Amino acid sequence: MKSIRALQRLSCSMPTARIGTKIHTKRNFMTSVQCMQAPTVIPSDSADPAMKTYKYWNREEYKRKGRYDYLIKISPESIIKEAKILSLSDPEDEANVALSESLPFGSKLLGTGTKLEEFDQFRDHSPNVLFVSPSCPKAREQLPLVLAAFPTIEWVHVRSAGIDFIVSDELSEIDIPMTNAKGQFSSSLAEYTMMACSYFAKDLPRLMKQQKAKNWEKYDVDELRGKTLGIVGYGDVGRACAKLAHVYGMKIIALRRKPKLSALDPYCTAVYGTDKKSLNRLMSESDYIVCSAPSTVDTRGMVDADAFAAVKEDAVFINLGRGPVIDENALTQALKDGRLKGAALDVFCEEPLPVENEMWTLDNVLLSPHNMDQTSTFMHEATEFFVYENLPRFICGKDLMNPVNPKEGY
C-alpha cells in the first residue's frame, strides 16, 4: 500500500501527458497510459479515495536494467474495448506466464495452444487479439487457420522481431493489423557486433593461443576508430549498431530499401538503396560489414558471389539478421580465398548448423548458435512490450506500435 501511495504522490506532482508521451523528471522517465480498471481489483473499502479510481504498476524488471520506468494509469473513462487474447504458443512458453501475471485491466488471456483445435472452446468468447510466439512449432501453418476460424480477431502481435517464421501466401491475403517486438533485441545484437569487430581487430584468437601456450609475444593490433562500418539493412537493429559504432569513432554507411527515410540520420555519412550496384559499393568501401536485413522474397541471396567479389581487402563480415540473406557457399569461398579477413555468424541458412558444414572448420570464423539476442530477460521484455505498450493502445483505441506487413515480410 505504501508503494502504491508513493507512486500516486509522484504522479500528482508531474504534468499529464497523452498516451505514449515520455515524461522526463530529474529522477524518472515515465509513460502515462490510460486503460480500463477492473471493478474487482480495487477494494471497495479502501481508505484512500483515489484507490477506487486508479491503479498503478511499476515495472521493476525495466528499472533493474536501467530502462524506462513505466507508470500506467488505469481509468475506466478511457476504455474503448476489452482485449480478449488467444496465445498461439507452446503452453510451456514462459511468455504465457508473463501474460497471465501482468495483463492490464481491460484484458484477459482466454487460452493458449499450438493448433486450431486447442482453441475450439473459445469460439463463443469472441477473441479479438492473437499473440503469436516462435515457440509454436507450426505457426506458419496454424496462423491462417486460426484467423479464418476466428473472424473477430482484430490484431495479431508477434513476439519476435522477425516474422519470417509465419509469412505465407495464405497470410498475405488476410487483411488484419499485425505488429512485432522490434526494438527489444537490438541492444544485445549491437553489442555483439562491436564485440565481433574487436575480436578481429585485436586478433583475439592469437591472444588466446599465446595465453594457452604461456607465450609472451607482443604483436600489433588494429583499432576501430576511423574504420568504416557498412550496414546492410538499416532498421532498428542496424541503427542500434550504428549508434554504438559512432561512439567508437567509426564511419558508418548503410543500405536500406527506402534510403530517404534516413536522410537526416545522425550516424550515417551515406545511405544507399538496395540495388546491386549500391550493395557492391558498400561492400567495397567497408572495413566491417554487418548484415541485419530480414529474410524476404527480395532479400534472400542478395549478398552473393558478386558482392563478396567486390569486398574490400581484409574486410570482416558479420551476419546477425537471417541466414538466407547470404549466399553461404560464396561466403565460405571468400573466407577460404582470403578475400575476407574473417566472419562472425550468428545466423545460418540451416539451423542447427549441420556438423558437416565447412564453417565449423574455418579458423577465421566466429560462430554462435543464433543466441546473441537471447539475454536472460529477452523473453519477458518482448512480452512486456506487448503488455505495457501495445495492449493499452489497443484497449484505448490508439495507434499500435511496430506495424509490420506480411506481404513485405517485415
Automatic annotation (TrEMBL):
Residue intervals of the D-isomer specific 2-hydroxyacid dehydrogenase NAD-binding domain: 199-370
Gene Ontology MF term list: NAD binding; oxidoreductase activity
The protein, known as: D-isomer specific 2-hydroxyacid dehydrogenase NAD-binding domain-containing protein
CDD domains, alphabetized: 2-Hacid_dh_1
InterPro entries: D-isomer_DH_CS, D-isomer_DH_NAD-bd, NAD(P)-bd_dom_sf, S-Ado-L-homoCys_hydrolase_CS
Domain of life: Eukaryota
Keyword tRNA-binding included in the entry's annotation: no
Lineage, uppermost ranks: Eukaryota, Sar, Stramenopiles, Ochrophyta, Bacillariophyta
